[in-house]
Write a structure and sequence with these properties.
The protein is α/β, with parallel strands linked by helices and 301 residues long. The protein has one domain (5-295): Rossmann fold. The chain contains 9 helices and 8 strands. The protein has helices at 56-62, 88-106, 121-131, 152-159, 179-182, 206-213, 215-223, 245-254, 279-300, and strands at 5-12, 15-22, 32-36, 66-70, 114-119, 140-144, 230-237, 261-270. It has an 8-stranded mixed sheet, with helices on both faces. The longest helix is centred in the last third of the chain and has 22 residues, at 279-300. It comes from Streptodolium elevatio. Keywords: Hydrolase. InterPro entries: AB_hydrolase_1 (IPR000073), AB_hydrolase_fold (IPR029058). One of its GO terms (molecular function) is hydrolase activity.
Length: 301
C-alpha cells in the first residue's frame, strides 16, 4: 500500500519548522517516530521520492507508526536563523517544544509516545535530548553514524574551516570530504546521489558545525547521562568516523545509564546509511527497536 507523505510546517515559538509527515492508513498510530537528519541534509534524507522502498516514512506508516521527519532548526523553513541560535543546545529546546505540541497536531495518530530516529549530526542532537531531564519521556533513540571520533582526514579538514568568517560552512575540499567518505562502494547506492543536488542537500549552520567538530571531547559526558534505550548503528563501510567493533564497544561502555543498549553494524552501507540500497533493512531494525521500546513502556512501567 502506498502511504501519502505530506509537507508540513509547525511554529515552535518564533521558529518555523518544515518537514515531511506520513500517517498510518488505519489509526490510531502505534507511536510517533521523529526523524532527525544529519549535517548538510534535510528531511528528505529519510524519504527519497525515487526510492520509496528505502523510505523510513513509507515503511513506518505501513507498520502503523506516524513518522515525522523535520528539517532541523537552521534548515528548511528555519534556514538563516541567527548564529547564536543554531547550536545543538538551542535545537534541543526547539525540538522538545515541537514534541510537546505534537499530540494537538496529530491527534490519535500520535500514539503511544515519541521515538527518535537520528543520523550523524542529528544523532548528536538526539543524544543530547536523551541526556536531558525531558528526555526521560522519550520511548528511545536510534542513533546512526555518531562520530565518537572522526577519521584523521576528516578531522584535519574540519579543523581547517575558519569558523569566524561565516554563518554557514563553506564547501570543504580534500581528503576526508569526498563521496568516498559518506558512501559505500559502487553498487551499494544510486550514483545519481553523487551530484549532491536536489531536496536532500543543504548548507550546514556554522554553530552546529562547531558543536560537531568538538564532539569527540564533549560526547562522553553526554552519553553518560542518557537514560532511555539506545539502538546504536555503525555502517559497514564507515569512512567519516572511526568505526569497527572497538567503536561499538566504546559506545556501549559510555552509555552507562541507558536501560538497554543494542549495538549493530549495518551491512552494505556507508556513512549515509539511509541513502543506500540496504536502507530498508536498516529502517526495519530501527522500527523493530521502536516497537520493543513501545511495548516495554506500555507493559513494564
Amino acid at each position: 500500500m502506498q502511504h501519502q507523505v505530506e509537507t508540513v510546517h509547525y511554529d515552535v515559538g518564533d521558529v518555523r519548522l518544515s518537514g515531511l509527515l506520513a500517517r498510518p492508513a488505519a489509526g490510531p498510530g502505534r507511536g510517533t517516530v521523529l526523524a532527525l537528519h544529519g549535517g548538510g541534509s534535510r528531511a528528505a534524507y529519510w524519504h527519497r521520492d525515487n526510492a520509496r522502498e528505502a523510505s523510513l516514512l513509507a515503511l513506518g506508516a505501513a507498520l502503523g507508526w506516524t513518522v515525522l521527519a523535520i528539517d532541523r532548526p537552521g534548515y528548511g523553513a528555519s534556514a538563516g536563523m541567527p548564529r547564536d541560535r543554531q547550536n545543538l543546545d538551542h535545537q534541543v529546546g526547539v525540538v522538545f517544544g515541537l514534541i510537546d505540541a505534537l499530540p494537538a497536531h496529530l491527534g490519535d495518530d500520535h500514539g503511544g509516545g515519541v521515538f527518535l530516529a537520528a543520523h550523524s549530526m542529528g544523532a548528536l542532537l538526539a543524544l543530547r535530548m536523551g541526556a536531558s531531564d525531558d528526555g526521560r519521556a522519550l520511548l528511545g533513540i536510534a542513533a546512526g553514524g555518531v562520530p565518537l571520533r572522526y577519521s584523521a582526514e576528516k578531522s584535519a579538514a574540519m579543523a581547517a574551516v575558519p569558523t569566524d568568517r561565516w554563518d554557514m560552512v563553506p564547501p570543504m575540499r580534500g581528503p576526508g570530504t569526498g563521496s568516498a567518505t559518506f558512501f559505500g562502494p559502487p553498487g551499494s547506492f544510486d550514483p545519481a546521489l553523487l551530484t549532491r543536488e536536489g531536496r536532500i542537500v543543504a548548507p550546514v549552520p556554522m554553530a552546529e558545525f562547531i558543536d560537531a567538530r568538538d564532539n569527540p571531547e564533549t560526547i562522553p559526558g553526554v552519553l553518560g547521562k542518557v537514560r532511555v534505550p539506545v539502538h546504536w548503528t555503525i555502517a559497514e563501510f564507515e569512512n567519516s568516523n572511526q568505526a569497527g567493533p572497538e567503536a561499538l564497544a566504546e559506545a556501549g561502555r559510555l552509555l552507562v545509564q541507558a536501560p538497554r543498549v543494542e549495538l549493530h553494524t549495518q551491512p552494505g552501507v556507508g556513512h549515509n546509511m539511509s541513502l543506500h540500497h540496504a536502507a530498508r533493512a536498516y529502517h526495519l531494525r530501527i522500527l523493530a527497536f521502536a516497537e520493543e521500546c513501545r511495548e516495554a513502556r506500555a507493559n513494564f512501567t
